[in-house]
Amino acid sequence: MSAVDEKEALDWLAGRMPVGDDCYVLTQGGEDLLLTTDMLHRSADFPAGITDFTIGWRSVAVSLSDLAGTGGRPLAVLIAYGAPQFELDSLEEFLDGAEEVCSLVGGRIVGGDLDRHQELTITTTAIGEAERPVDRSGAEPGDLVTVTGDLGRTAAALKLFEKGEVDRANELFRFEPRIQEGLQLGEMATSMMDISDGLARSLHQISRASDVGFRVTEGKIPFAPSVEELSESPEERRELGLFTGEDFELLATVPAQYKFDLATLGVRVIGEVTAEEEVRVASGMEVIDLEDRGYVH
Amino acid sequence: MSAVDEKEALDWLAGRMPVGDDCYVLTQGGEDLLLTTDMLHRSADFPAGITDFTIGWRSVAVSLSDLAGTGGRPLAVLIAYGAPQFELDSLEEFLDGAEEVCSLVGGRIVGGDLDRHQELTITTTAIGEAERPVDRSGAEPGDLVTVTGDLGRTAAALKLFEKGEVDRANELFRFEPRIQEGLQLGEMATSMMDISDGLARSLHQISRASDVGFRVTEGKIPFAPSVEELSESPEERRELGLFTGEDFELLATVPAQYKFDLATLGVRVIGEVTAEEEVRVASGMEVIDLEDRGYVH
Q: Of the candidates B1, B111, B119, which has its C-beta nearest A119's C-beta?
């Protein structure tokens, strides 16, 4: 009996149950309901300097982002809150943050559980609905590859937390789940997901699920301004923007006929889908393989 | 800013969001969906000697029991699994237990999350449906008070774990959620819940939510055979059977006209609902107040 890493454990689980996409789709009464759950905890997910408000926001946003990645609309969120002690002021700030992100993109905190736990541990579960749920398996050669927003916010925030610039760090940590963009992309996309482990890992995940490859152009990848500002070399910029992840932007593949619709949505096209199962990035004059690695807790 | 206990925190939360019943009822497309989440963890919920199979079973059963307490039928279960390391053998046993309880009473494990966490921590979320969801607020004076099964199994199991009699302890720990009974009682009940913190606390919870009282007869309360066997005094028997809880039997109030239907279901009538908001128990020649205390993690 030997221990395996999270990725190996997930691969093994995928052989036993319908895991592998952002959400499970439960068809109930003719409607497609989306279900997703995420566990976060102090030592891995909440750096020193984070506020209770940001913890509440981010914990909920992570699950709402899974709904966005499936093209869904939020209905309700449950929160299991484990903490060494219950302080009403902390709980209030936490809930304010949790409710604020719902008021921005939809959904409602409807209940949960309290648990006295040695380490602050939050499990959020989101329930949504989708007209046309999109998973990772439908990408076709020739499709355009698109991402919302810009990449590397979380990596930049982590650097700022370390430097003690906590106000900016908290702000960057409170990302807005791409619900609207997911609904719009969902009408066109052949595959979609939220970028939780970094763009590189996400491209590989769609590559495997759809049995296709990617060719992306580094110059077209939208790095966050804070990444441009905080990275000290092109290598670090790439590390922060492509491999750190937890930015929760959306990655989608869209048939080329929708090129102009994508421009209207304000999302960037960074490359295209290819037939070979490989992920290549054009950087200046070179074309190199983009490694399959990403954020590790 | 001062820390409060779980009960005070829950009371405070109830002022802010719809907590206070076993499940949240989400009305969607004309149907009533039930949502519930629970966090369990090693130091509070999984005694030394518990098997991975029992951990999986019990983690899922706890959430299914909330569906039962609302008169619901299980549809799907999500599991967030946090552990210091991922062992495929342990995960397999855990999932076997989780799936076994679903195969007994309904539902299906459809996905979840893996999280590397210092302490084994499991959050289960169950989604169900109900024709007629029952909460805690509708009890009326004159209703009969009924419980399913027998009480004190978990208390007895904890004693057996301590004594090292782990086979019997594991077996007692793997309770069967009362889904069938909940569906049947749900057609008649004015209030219902699962007994998670012990019968005494549960009676007080319905008393407050329905603004009624209870008069129960101690001699009619069904104590588990293992409680009769393991308790060394009448006081200990009462402690194990009424105040320890985590037995996940159902407590319901049912109009007296259904007296004969209850007999057919094989559930026990232990007393009746009264108008005064107080919980009294008749024990021999005495009638005493039943304290509002229960299982504390």
A: B119
